Amino acid sequence: MKAKQYLTLGLGIVAGFGISVVGVSYASQNLVSNVKQVTPEVAKSIMLNKVPGANILEFSYDGDDKTPKYDGTLIKDNYEYEVDVNAKTGQIIKFEKEAIFTHNSNGNANNASANTQQSTTQQSTTQNNNASTTRKAYIGESKAKSIMLNKVPGATISKFYLDNDATPEYDGELIKGDYEYDISVDAVTGEIREFSKERIRNYNNPTINNSTSTNSNTNANNNVATNNNTNVNNNVAPDRQGFAIASLVLGILSIPLVCWGCVGLICGVLALIFGILGLKSSKRGLAIAGIVTGIIGLIVYVVFVIVYTGIILGGATSALS
Description:
The protein is an alpha+beta fold.
C-alpha cells in the first residue's frame, strides 16, 4: 500500500514539473518576442532626425497593440507632425504633417506659410476654392475664427477648415493650457453648433510664441530649434515594469514553494495579480511570463494537495483496517 502511495506522489510531482517546464518554455519565447528593444531616448532621437529642429509636444508608449510603438507629436515652425516609431525595430510606421493656425494679440488669425504646399494643406486649398463661389453667403473665415476665439479667450487655433456639405460649417480645434476645444460654427448664420472640451494627455505647454510681426515669429522659431536638444520633454507615460518583474519572480517561486503549503498558493495568486497590472508596461513580456508561471504554480499546488490528501486518507484507511 505504501509503495502505491509513493508511486502516486511521484507521478504527481513529475506531472507538475513537466507542466512547469512547458509553461516556462512558452513564456520565455513570448518574452523574447515582446521585449521592447528601443528605449524612449532612442525613439525620440529617431523622431527628431525625421523632423530636424522640431520640438516634442507629446510623447507616450503604446503597448496595447500587437505591435508596440512610441507615439509622438512634434512642432516646427507652423506645422505639427505626428510620428509613430516601432518599439521593437525603431522603424517609423506613421508620419503625418499638418499646418497650425495661430492667433496674435490683435485678434487676427495668421495662416501658416503658403510657400510650401504639402499634401496636408490640400484640404485648405480645396475649401478656399469652394468658398469663393459662395463668399457672399458665408460669414467668412476671419469672422468664424473670431467667434471661436471669443468663445475661448486666449486660446490658440491649431486646426481650422470649412466643411462645405449640405449644412456648411467652419470646424476648428483650439488649445488653451492643457485643454483642447472642438468648435463648429454655422458658415451662414455664425451660430455655434458644437462645442466640446477635452484634457490633453501629456501636455507640457510648448514654447510657441504668437508675435505680432514676422521678425518676432522668426526669432521664436529659432529659439525653439536652439533649445530643442537641451529641453526634450520626458513625457513618458508612467511605467509599471515593477509589477511585471515582481510577477515573474513570484510565478517562478510559486512552483517549488508548493511544498510549503499556502506559501506557494499566495505566490501564484500574487503573480497573476501583478502580471495583469504589468501588461501595459514596457516589460509586457515579463508580465506574460509571470502570469504563465503563476498559473503553473497554482496547478502544481492543486495537484500536490490532491496527491497529499490521497496519501493521508489512504494511510488513515490502512490504519483503521
